[in-house]
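Feature request, filed as a ticket because there's no other form

It would be nice if the structure record came with a short human-readable summary line next to the tokens. Right now we just get the raw output. Example of a typical job, pasted below so the devs can see what we mean:
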Amino acid sequence: MLTDVSDAAADPPAMPAPGPVAGPIPLPERATAEQIFAALVERVATLSESPGCYLYKDASGRVIYVGKAKNLRRRVASYFQRRENHPTRTLRLVQEVVDIETLPTDSEVEALLLENSLIKELQPRYNVRLKDDKSYPLLAITREEFPRVFVTRDADLPETDYVGPFVSVVELNRAYHFLQRVFRFRVCDLDIHEGDPVRRSFSPCLNFHIKRCSAPCTLRVDAPRYQEDIANLRAFVGGKGKKPVMAALAGRMVAAAKELRFEEAARLRDQLHSLERLKERGRLRDYDEPTAPTVDLHAGMERLRDALGLSTPPQVIEGFDIAHLQGQFVVAALVQFKSGVPNKDAYRRFRVRGAAGDNNPGNDDFAAMREVVGRRYRRLLDEGQRLPDLVLIDGGQGQVRMAMEALAAAGVTLPCVVGLAKREECLIRSDLAELRLSRRDPGLKLLQYVRDEAHRFCRRYYHLLQHKALHEGREASPTKRLRRRSHAVRNASILPPDEPPAPPAAPPSA
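Raw output as currently delivered:
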């Protein structure tokens, strides 16, 4: 049975307050198509550039389309530009639009969930793709004592509530990965009950160790506290936004600390931190899970312990990479792996400042590596945080030498620092000695996994800075382009002023 989680919640979903755009667009009583177009152009100029949802309304004030955007102003402006490339359905939509309302959010994740909630509530007739007979992805939450949460296309599962449907399974999976980091729900098929004695001796899976699950299969969390996490998840995905959820988490954290349940308080603190960072790191693509290598992660860590002479397998590995274009846009990235799995909450990126501190370090990979390694571990030392078991430097002897100099200057001693030279795939130890492992060695494959992920993350930041520099001040804003083209209102997307508007299309059959 297809049951929405909002039906199971105590309160109906609360929509976020509209952003700076408020009130209908003022129009003359018998406005021409040209006047309507000019008014829409003026409204676009007032739109926020934040993520969020936009609502198109017809002459009767009825919402006929709901969409989401990474940048509201840019996305809405695109409907009124390059109209010759729009499909017929979009042209008909633009002909009927007389008003625009926007609901800004802090992140793309919230925009995706809000769009789904609005479509379900308002049923706009141009959003037919979510109402036809196709099988769209859904977010499922079971009604077990310890509910499971998963993505499915089966809308007839027993004792299951649903959020959705969603148009894009890729976007839903990205949002799902974020939700798993915050609410730490289980994804396994175990039959778990509060009074089951097996929970006393059960060992949690890897998801618990990488903070993706609260391990209800053990005694680490009881049914009432796990249900509180699921209730917060239902509120968040049901359109209430993150503020009430954060308030509930903060209250539970304080109560847990007062009752000396410090492990639970720390878990709730981490959940709060993830929600607070959503505005900073709320792009859906930030929650892509990188493809894991074809290697036994446990075997890889065991092999690194033996090959590098460590006392225990390296549970926490951090990797560094540098990227630039002939000394311009010099950036660095840090990735962290726990138990062989990426821990994206600990990823960090750096703008290399250089000796003068003017963000212009020049073409010097060695100096850049020295700077970022020093900055990273001086901060961990100052904050009293745990140091990694293994640090991987993308580079050869020069980069490793600079990293060791930075650590010595900061007074930091790490268990192990190695470099990985790309051409020979040779390990460089902290004493600059070379260590060659077989190309099939699971330890080498694990380090290659870390190195490649650091490279990917670093290149993303580099391309972001490069893109901003190339376009800053050189490209007119979408609003200015719209104003320049407002005289071209008599084209395929807007009817001539002397022609009556097209009659509204009949709603699609259910």
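Something like this underneath would help us a lot:
The first strand starts at residue 3 and ends at 4.
The radius of gyration is 27 Å.
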